Amino acid sequence: QAPAPQLYSIETADTVLSVTGEVLERAYYFTLEDLQLLGGSFEADYFSRGKEPQEETNHFIGIRVDYLLDAVVGVGDSARKVSFKSSDGYGAAFSLADVRSTYINEKDADAELYMILAWSQDGEELGALRLVMGQTIEGDYNRTNWVRDVMTIEVKA
């Protein structure tokens, strides 16, 4: 069930994430507490490949991005592209289909992972949101898609 329309419509000093875009009726602003209380939380071990270290497994807790966009913000049928931007300007863009996909952990055949905005890694609060996703195929260098300190999600047609 989506929140009442007036919720999350004002940016405050505690806002950690804004969701904007030409395909949305308005912008949405969330505090960390909002995100933790919305539902859609997900917790799992994510295996990743990248530069340093080459391989690593971390336990993340966060909110599923598909849940945030579909159940809370209510992106419409015109939404196609989702961009994530960090505090330092770094970002990544995905199709809405990618956001709604499930991912694998090559070290755990039973794992079904989601794209999440994590607030906790290995039991420690991150202090900011981190975009985390599993692997699309075994051997995937998935950490190159991760984004630290995500502050904005922009939804486009």
Structural class: mainly beta
User: Total number of β-strand segments?
Assistant: 11
- Rg, rounded, reads 15 Å
DSSP helix fraction: 10-25%
Shape: globular
Number of helices: 3
Mean pLDDT: 94
Unreliable spans are: none
Strand content: over 45%
Largest sheet: 9 strands, mixed
Distance between the termini: 24 Å
* Helix-strand topology string: EEHEEHEEHEEEEE
Give me a quick take on this structure:
This protein has helices spanning 32-37, 65-73, 96-100, and strands spanning 15-20, 28-31, 41-49, 55-64, 81-86, 91-95, 103-105, 108-113, 116-121, 124-132, 147-156. By secondary structure, the chain is mainly beta. The strands form two sheets. Strands 1, 2, 3, 4, 5, 6, 9, 10 and 11 form a nine-stranded mixed beta sheet that branches.
Question: What tags apply to this protein structure?
Answer:
about 160 residues; 3 helices; about 15% helix
Commentary on this structure:
Strands 1, 2, 3, 4, 5, 6, 9, 10 and 11 form a 9-stranded mixed beta sheet that branches. Strands 7-8 form a two-stranded antiparallel ribbon. The model has no long low-confidence stretch (mean pLDDT 94). It contains 3 helices and 11 strands, in the order ββαββαββαβββββ. With 157 residues, the protein is mainly beta.
Give the SSE map:
Layout: E1 15-20, E2 28-31, H1 32-37, E3 41-49, E4 55-64, H2 65-73, E5 81-86, E6 91-95, H3 96-100, E7 103-105, E8 108-113, E9 116-121, E10 124-132, E11 147-156
Parallel strand pairs: 1-11
Antiparallel strand pairs: 1-2, 3-4, 4-9, 5-6, 5-11, 7-8, 9-10, 10-11
